[in-house]
Structures are given as C-alpha cells and as structure tokens.
Amino acid sequence: MVSRREYAHQLAEMSLSHIDRAIAFLYYYRETQQFEERTASALASDLFEENFPKPNVTNLKTALTKSNFTVKGKQTGSFRLDVRKIAQLAEKYDALFKAKVIKVGDSVIPVHWVANTRPYLEKMVHQINGCYEYNFLDGCAVLSRRLMESLIIDVYARDKRQHEIQDNGVFIPLEKLIKYISADTKVTLGRNSHQTMNAIKQLGDTAAHDRTYITPPVDINDLKTRYRRLISELLDKAGIK
After folding, report:
1. Which of 46, 36, 3, 4 is nearest to 18 (CA)?
2. Fewer CB within 10 Å, N- or C-terminus of the chain?
3. Which CATH class is domain 4-97?
C-alpha cells in the first residue's frame, strides 16, 4: 500500500480541484482504514501537509456538504464517503494504490451485509469471498475465523462491555470468547450457534497451523450455510447489519 505522500504525489499529476483532492483523501483514508470520516478543517490541513495549497476551510466545508460523493459523518462537522459512489471513486483512484482490485461476488457472505459499515469488515468479507472463488481455501478458512472473532468482540463493544472479555486490557483467546458469549444470558444466540463457532474455530486453526493439511472445498462447503447464518446473527447483535 502506498503512503499518503506517495498517493498525494500521484494526485498532483491529475487535474483536480480542492474538493476533488479532499474526496480523494477521504477515499485513501477509507481504503487504508486510517479514518472513516474527517472534518473539512482536518482535510484542509492534510492537503497542506502534502504541499497542496491549503483550501479555505469554510468553502471546503460548503463544497463537501453539497457534494454527491459525501454524507455526514457521526462526529459533528465530519464527512464520510457515500457508499453508492465507492465504485466510481475506485475506477478513478485505485490505480494510485498500485494494487489490482479483484471483483468478487457473494459466494460466502453477501457483500451488502457490511456495505458502508466498517472498512475492516468490508475488506474481510471481500477477501473471504475472493479466497473462496479463487480456491484459496486455507485463506478463506483463516479469514472466516477472524471475521467471527472480530464480530464477537463487536457485540460486546456495542454495549461498552468489552472489559468483560479482556484480561489486563487484552482480549481473551477465541476459545474463551466462544464459551463466554455462549453462556451470556444478555446475548441470545441461536441453538446451534455454539457448535458453529467451535467448528469455524477448528477449521481456521487447522488451516493456519497444520503443517501438511490443505483445506479442501468440502470443508468450507459443509459449513458455509451455517457460517452465513452465524455471521448474520453476530452482525445483528453487534448492531452492524
């Protein structure tokens, strides 16, 4: 992934207005998971730090408010990208990242479940589906385990209960996370969710740590429907879906 400075140097070769550059920076931050949203003042400073002329903050804020590419962020005065415009921005700026973006479908997890939620969830779902479709099944198994673990943590973060699943400020291992959420009377999961979580953990652990075993399609396919149902459930409990 290119640095912001390298990205800015490539933007400088394009004929862009202040607002175009600000939106391009928002796209960079989204893709690199640095920020989900940014204020006009912060974007003006960011551009100036990369040796662009500093925009007038008031004018930039007005332009961002009127832009079809942005929506209001969660923080006062902040802006984020409109998810409906991401594909259009990708066509314009993805080449600057020097990485080919692979188009994938909804083979494991429907993309729209996490669209415009959190970049790390969007990227994990994209990679899980991509690994499955291109037959990188060890990667699919490991990432499926990781997504499940992240969402269990998100369930507790939603209600500011993350301290319950931490030990000295560090999140407890997945095995303990599964036991904790399965026994938690404040989180109602499906009857078979506990078994599914353990099965996904075992699948991911084997793919990551077994020296000779290569994950075959049947291992993924046998769990795919149950896994999809589990992820839908966790997204709901985390207030994300």
Report:
1. 46
2. N
3. mainly alpha
Instruction: Give kind and range of the element (H or E) at residue 167.
Output: strand 166-167
CB of 109 closer than 8 Å to CB of 129: yes
Span 158-171, pLDDT tens digits: 999 999 999 999 99
pTM: 0.68
Task: Give ∠ CA 108-114-120 in degrees, rounded to 5.
Answer: 95
166 Cβ contact partners less than 8 Å away, ≥ 6 residues apart: 172
Options 2.40.160, 3.20.20, 1.20.120, 1.10.8; CATH for 111-237 is 1.20.120
SS3 of 99, please? coil
Q: How many residues does the chain have?
A: 241
The residue whose two tokens read 């925009």 is 55
> Which helix (H) or strand (E) element contains residue 81?
strand 78-81
In terms of DSSP bridges, do strands 38-39 and 78-81 run parallel, antiparallel, or are they unpaired?
antiparallel
